[in-house]
């Protein structure tokens, strides 16, 4: 009997670990917020400043994760990602959970901010969430496969230590780079007007497909139990920086449209 109990408890604990999810790390979200701040129109800047009591977009960028441990906010958990099956040709809102997904979540945030009848408190909350989710949208594994929880179940090593490919993209590469979010934002690539315009082009679903295509490429370029390190960093960190920059520019586009 005792042995059965031990087995049951062990299984339970292993499931907890299995289900543990990772997040585009704090530095990534803040970088996207900081880059967006630099692309805001004066009107948007003023309105947002007022709504956030002078706090920056970088400052509020991790609120979406901070509330995760509070059961009262559990319904927002599926808003952090959207899964599109490899064989699917397009996004199908029918696949979203009852509580929605990253796409419906972002749309809801925009709707609340555009609604004159929303309370100040509601607007504040949904602005913080919008900053967070547009960041998540640009972490390719937040638009990954449901079958492996967006790469959370694709085990790899990072400099010899056990982790998974989702986590490598959330935070391992960014943390290994050892730059603060302000440094990452300041050192973003200099883009021509034309390049910025190309990034702003399209709508939410175009950006979802872009992340999804990147995720497909990344799934193919890694095998279970690969030990990733310097070579992987060298190959993919430029893409990480690019994703953070795209997230910032597109977040600013959304906000400038809301407050125009
Ligand atoms: N985090 C938890 N589940 C996930 C999923 N299915 N896709 C991406 N990120 C996730
Ligand atoms: Zn994540
Ligand atoms: Zn998130």
Automatic annotation (TrEMBL):
Q: Which Gene3D superfamilies match?
A: P1 Nuclease
- Recall the GO molecular function terms of this protein's record: endonuclease activity; hydrolase activity, acting on ester bonds; metal ion binding; nucleic acid binding
Which superkingdom?
Answer: Bacteria
Keyword set for this entry?
A: Disulfide bond, Endonuclease, Glycoprotein, Hydrolase, Metal-binding, Nuclease
Q: Which organism is it from?
A: Zunongwangia pacifica
Q: Which GO terms describe its biological process?
A: DNA catabolic process
| Family matches, as PANTHER family | ENDONUCLEASE 4 (PTHR33146:SF26)
Q: Which InterPro entries match?
A: PLipase_C/P1_nuclease_dom_sf, S1/P1nuclease
**SUPFAM superfamilies registered for this protein in UniProt:** Phospholipase C/P1 nuclease
UniProt name for this protein: S1/P1 nuclease
């Amino acid at each position: 009997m005792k042995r059965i109990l031990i087995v049951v408890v062990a299984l339970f604990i292993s499931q907890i670990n299995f289900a543990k999810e990772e997040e585009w790390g704090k530095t990534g979200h803040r970088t996207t917020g900081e880059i967006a701040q630099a692309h805001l129109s004066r009107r948007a800047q003023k309105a947002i400043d007022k709504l956030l009591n002078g706090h920056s977009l970088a400052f509020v960028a991790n609120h979406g994760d901070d509330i995760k441990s509070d059961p009262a906010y559990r319904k927002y958990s599926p808003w952090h990602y959207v899964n599109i099956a490899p064989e699917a040709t397009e996004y199908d809102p029918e696949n979203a959970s009852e509580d929605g997904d990253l796409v419906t979540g972002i749309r809801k945030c925009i709707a609340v901010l555009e609604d004159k009848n929303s309370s100040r408190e509601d607007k504040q909350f949904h602005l913080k969430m919008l900053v967070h989710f547009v960041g998540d949208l640009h972490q390719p594994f937040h638009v990954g496969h449901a079958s492996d929880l967006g790469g959370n179940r694709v085990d790899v090593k990072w400099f010899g230590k056990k982790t998974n490919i989702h986590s490598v993209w959330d935070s391992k590469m960014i943390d290994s780079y050892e730059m603060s979010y302000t440094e990452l934002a300041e050192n973003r690539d200099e883009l021509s007007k034309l390049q910025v315009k190309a990034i702003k082009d399209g709508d939410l679903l175009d950006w979802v497909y872009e992340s999804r295509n990147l995720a497909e490429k990344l799934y193919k370029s890694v095998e279970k139990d690969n030990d990733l390190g310097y070579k992987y960093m060298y190959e993919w960190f430029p893409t990480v920086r690019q994703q953070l920059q795209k997230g910032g520019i597109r977040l600013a586009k959304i906000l400038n449209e809301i407050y125009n």
